[in-house]
Every structure is written in C-alpha cells, then in structure tokens.
User: Which sequence fits this backbone?
C-alpha cells in the first residue's frame, strides 16, 4: 500500500501542484483546505505524513501543528511545513511548533521535499 | 585546510555570490546542501538555510555584493557548519551595535553569531551538530 500524505492547503492551484509532485513518487494524497478539517482527518485516518501550509482560513498552520503534536494519536506523524512565509521568525515558530521541516515554496521546494521524504522514511 | 584557533575548516566548502534576489534562493538551497552533506537533520537544515537566506537578504538590503562562505567546522570532537561573509557596511558601526542588530534579525537560529573586527568586519555564524541535530536515515 502506498504511503499516504495529508496535504493541508487552501489554494486549489497550489494543492494541485503539490499533489502532482507527491503522486509522481507513488504517494497517495488526500487534500483538506483548513486547519480544523486537517486535525479531524489526521485523527480519524492517520496519514504517514502531513504537508502543511501556514496561511489557512480559521486556524494557521502553526496552531494546527501544535495541536497535532500534542495529541497522542498524531504526535508521531511527521509534519512538513511548506510555505510562502520564509523569514527567520516564521521558521523558528514553525520548528518550535514541532514541524519536522520548514520548506519555502520556491523553485527548489520539490527537490527539498523529496530529500526530506527520504530522510523521514516516507519514500523508500 | 584553514584553521581558526583550535577550529579547523572541513569539507564541504561552498561559496555563494549574492548580487540579486535570485541569489537568496540559491543561497538557501546551497546551505541546505552543505548541511545535508554534514549530516544535519531536516529541522537543522531548515534553520541553517533560513539563516543563510537572512544573511543574503541583509547583503541585498545594504545594496552590497558579497560572497557567503559555507564550510564544515571541527573543534576537537565537535563538528558544525560555519557561515561567514565580509561586511564592509558594518565598518562604521561599533561591533557591539552591529552584533545586537544581527542577533535581533537572526534570533536564536544559530548557536553562535559574531562580528569579527575588520577591516573589513566579517559576520560569522556557527551551528553545531549535536546528537539532536543529526540525520537518522533508514537504511
């Protein structure tokens, strides 16, 4: 069975682009568009990995990550933050929230994402 | 290999010329590569890449063109990554004030942030590779 990824991204265009990258290496991708849905989905159907945007409606990615890392059912699921907010403060907030990586959405994003997926053991 | 006190520069040794905004992305990517080669975990790679991108941003903001140097560093049994660049724009500032401004911008993202007196002054940052920061690859 293919490893599953929960992609939390409110932009449909970006969600499609990221989904294509993840599916191209054999991962199964489920998409949700906001924080509460992400938490509910992660609790009900724990994925192998969560790729999380920061700017989300109703609840930001940092809050989502903290909640996921506090819950026993989801605390061991790796979380990769994939975001436009690439400053020093934002990165440290993301990593302190428990993210396993913090990747800016730039031209190298797909390459960095693949490298981290290998390190986390999500890709063989 | 270069030495600095008991600290020894070790591979990988990489340089990034920063002249425009595209170079910030390249700097970030190069830093991740260097950190990866040294065995830093994904979390630490993100820290190092962000610090290097912030340094590249500073270079662009002062309308300078500078080269950022990245290399591994060994001090006895300790290993880490060092990031440095010349900072002629700090020549007129007191080293203390320059350091306060840098630390305000970079926070606690690196273990060491220093401004070595010139001429020209040089910004030097180090992140040490401790047990919690190493890659744990499966197989």
Assistant:
């Amino acid at each position: 069975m293919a490893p599953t990824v929960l992609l939390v991204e409110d932009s449909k265009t970006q969600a499609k682009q990221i989904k294509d990258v993840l599916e191209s290496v054999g991962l199964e991708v489920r998409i949700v568009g906001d924080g509460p849905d992400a938490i509910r989905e992660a609790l009900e159907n724990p994925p192998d990995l969560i790729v999380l945007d920061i700017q989300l409606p109703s609840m930001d990615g940092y809050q989502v990550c903290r909640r996921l890392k506090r819950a026993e059912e989801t605390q061991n699921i790796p979380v990769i933050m994939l975001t436009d907010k690439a400053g020093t403060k934002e990165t440290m907030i993301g990593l302190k929230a428990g993210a396993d990586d913090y990747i800016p959405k730039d031209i190298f994003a797909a390459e960095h994402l693949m490298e981290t997926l290998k390190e986390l053991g999500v890709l063989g | 290999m270069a030495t600095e006190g008991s600290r020894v520069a070790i591979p990988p040794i990489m340089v990034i010329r920063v002249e425009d905004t595209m170079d910030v992305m390249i700097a970030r990517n190069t830093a991740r590569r260097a950190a990866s080669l040294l065995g830093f975990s994904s979390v630490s790679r993100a820290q190092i890449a962000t610090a290097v991108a912030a340094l590249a941003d500073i270079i662009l903001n002062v309308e300078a063109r500078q080269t950022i140097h990245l290399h591994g560093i060994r001090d006895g049994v300790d290993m880490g990554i060092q990031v440095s660049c010349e900072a002629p724009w700090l020549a007129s500032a007191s080293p203390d004030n320059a350091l306060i401004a840098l630390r305000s911008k970079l926070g606690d993202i690196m273990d060491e942030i220093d401004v070595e007196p010139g001429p020209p002054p040089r910004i030097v940052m180090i992140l040490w590779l401790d047990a919690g920061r190493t890659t744990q690859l499966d197989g």
Remarks:
- The first helix of chain A runs from residue 12 to 24.
- Chain A touches chain B through 26 residues (CB under 8 Å).
- Chain A has a mean pLDDT of 94.
